[in-house]
Amino acid sequence: MARIVSARPRADAVAAYKVVLKRIIDARPSGTRHRLAIALGKNRSFISQIAQSCGHATPIPAQHLETIFEICHFTTGD
């Protein structure tokens, strides 16, 4: 039997992740957003859009997560 999962908890989790991503990008050296855009083959505006928790419905593509983690140097304290 298929389990029905509410979209609200998922949306809340994505929004929380985007808040962390934005905080990390903003705390890193100024070229981080640019390096991330180059590594993903995207424009810096795309990076800004995926890091916005509200106002932008742009999802974070799963295939980009490993690169985001590598470039942004996520740690357990972030």
Describe the protein's topology.
Elements: H1 7-27, H2 32-40, H3 44-51, H4 65-72
Structure description:
With 78 residues, the chain is mainly alpha-helical. The protein has one domain. The protein contains four helices and no strands. It has helices at 7-27, 32-40, 44-51, 65-72. Helix 2 (32-40) packs antiparallel against helix 4 (65-72). It is globular, with a radius of gyration of 13 Å. 12% of the residues are buried. The model has no long low-confidence stretch (mean pLDDT 79).
Brief rundown of the structure:
The chain is mainly alpha-helical and 78 residues long. The chain has helices spanning 7-27, 32-40, 44-51, 65-72. Helix content is 59%, strand content 0%.
